[in-house]
Amino acid sequence: MRKITYDRSKCMACRSCEVACAIEHTMSKNLYKALSEKDKPLPRRHLSPSGTACFTVSCFHCEDPICAEACIVSALKKDENGKVICDTAKCIDCGMCIMVCPFGAITISETFIIKCDMCPDRDGSFACIEACPTKALKEKK
Amino acid sequence: MKVLIIGNHAAGLTAAEVLRKNSDKTDITIISKENTPPYSRCLVSDIISGEKNIEDILFKDKDFYEKNRINAMLGKTALSVDAENKTVILDDKSKIPYDNLIIATGGDPAMPDLPGINLKGVFGLRTDQDALKIKDYLKNSKTAVVLGGGLVGIKAAAALSLTGKKVKVFVASSGILSQILSKDEADILQNKLEDQGVEFLMHSDGKEIMGKQKAECLITDKGDKIECELIIVAKGVKANTGLIKDTSIKTDHGIIINDSCMTNIKTIYAAGDVAQSKDDIRNESWMNSIWPLAVEEGKVAALNISGKKTNLLERTSMNAFHIAGTWLVSCGLTGLRDTKEDTEKYFLLDRKKNNYKKFIFKDNQLVGFALIGNILNAGVLNLLMRKKINLGNTKDQLLAGKYDFSSMIPCIMENKERFNEPEFREVLDSFK
Questions:
Q1: In chain B, domain spans
Q2: CATH number for region B111-235
């Protein structure tokens, strides 16, 4: 399964990953145009300081996803590629997955939940990795 | 191996799916008294409001049974279990043999012994068919009464109010959702539901339902007469344990299971709302009738039957929902009657942002919390609670509202031995 890894020692806490992730999930995929879109750009990756260093969190696409077990409408599922995906048409925004995700990797919009979807609109690359200036985020192959 | 599963909802279906994932050869049969495709029970109230129809609340794909090669016997009721001969006897007198049995029969609405309870217009609410009947009956009703302020009653009341009908909810205790909320949280939610048009009568209950053939009015325990055409009885759920009454399976409020979901008979497992297991925060056997635990129990029962020794994760009561325009999460010892002298409680209220948080600690451990409004990172709190982490200075951080995962890493580092899942290992490795 494809995996994004994070090397803390290289991270400068610049938040480029957060910004790139938010823009990737807009209609226009452009920072300036996105600001005028109806839905606010929201990141699926969150960076916050921890002690003297920092740490970035997004969905780990867990081996045994507890969020999918808690989903009462079976919107959250682990697909055949190991990705934990949310069918937003089914999601009723009840908050069960947020209640159980130990990483706080799921956030919320007015109508459905928001989580890392591994950039389905891209041709195999990841917005956060591409935006990381120090290569702290990498794809583990 | 022949595995028989009684029950076609969260626990039963998960068990079937996990059994198939672990073996091509297992012969899997599901028996259910309901003759409908699997749907999500949590959503039946949305049928009443018309927000959803049956198709929308289906929980598994149409080809679920076929794809997983499950023999589904729907519309059949399992009457009794013959543990000695390892067979289950159905209502049509047929006998179904098994090597391992999973009882996931759930519960039925508990109907109190009130005069008039059998009149037309009085309903329990559990199944999709119940919801459809209520929706249909509602057409000729002006006022609806809900007896009970638990989750089923509250969801039903919210749904009824969306249809524009008058709704009165009778709550026996001082606050709604008294099993999972204390008075402060209950009042916030009650206000929101009142804004939506629901009327609450606290410390009140029904005493008698009157009417010729159909319900026409409710007599309250205070002697008042409330005119109503439709009554939903939501006074709790009783576990469907009738089928094991001739066996030696131990029961209390439900079927007693151990950490591997096994009953006291080796070949019989139980899972979901019919099962009763240890609550790790209460430290006693408890009926936690919640979706995530039903799924977990179904999975663990199936894994153990498949020869993969597995125990249930740390567990306690937990609920999350989005109702009357707000989100609410409540986990652990948050109920009205859970107040103990040896616990410390803290409340944080941000009126402007409509955010409310409550934390309950015991011996420096988080044993309960409730969030209304902003529920983000609830899972991180849940993790700290379930892993029984000694919080130390982190407690102040929680009270300052700072409990994102990154902020909790020091706590996890100090308790490495409790975090063995591969994802936690990955996090810990990055701190080497």
A1: 2-42+58-108+238-305, 111-235, 318-429
A2: 3.50.50.60
Secondary structure of residue B340 in the 3-state scheme = coil
B chain contacts of residue A62, beta-carbon cutoff 8 Å: 421-423
Mutation target to probe the A interface, by most A beta carbons within 10 A, among B288, B300, B430 is: B430
Q: Which fold has domain A63-114?
A: Alpha-Beta Plaits (3.30.70)
Under a CB-based contact definition with an 8 Å cutoff, are residues B311 and B261 in contact? no
Fold of the CATH domain B318-429: Enolase-like; domain 1 (3.30.390)
Substitution target from B406, B408, B425, B430 for chain A, most A beta carbons within 10 A: B406
For A106-130, give one letter per residue: b (16+ CB within 10 A) or e. bbbeeebbbbbbbbeeeeeebbbbe
Interface pTM, i.e. ipTM: 0.95
Q: Could you identify the residue written with the tokens 């989903």?
A: A71
Structure tokens at B392: 């130390």
CATH match of A1-58+116-141 with 2.160.10.10:
no
Chain B residue closest to A105 (CA)? B377
Output the pLDDT for position B342.
83
Which of B57, B295, B405 lies closest to A57 in CB terms? B405
Please name the residues in contact with A120: beta carbons below 8 A apart, sequence gap of 6 or more. Answer: none
Q: B2-42+58-108+238-305: what CATH class?
A: alpha beta
Give contacts of A99 with chain B, Cβ < 8 Å.
318-320, 329, 331, 375, 378-379, 382
Question: Phi-psi bin for B197: left (phi > 0), alpha (psi -120 to 50), beta?
Answer: left
Spans in chain B with pLDDT lower than 70 = none
pTM higher than 0.90 for the full model?
yes
CB B48 within 8 A of CB B131: yes
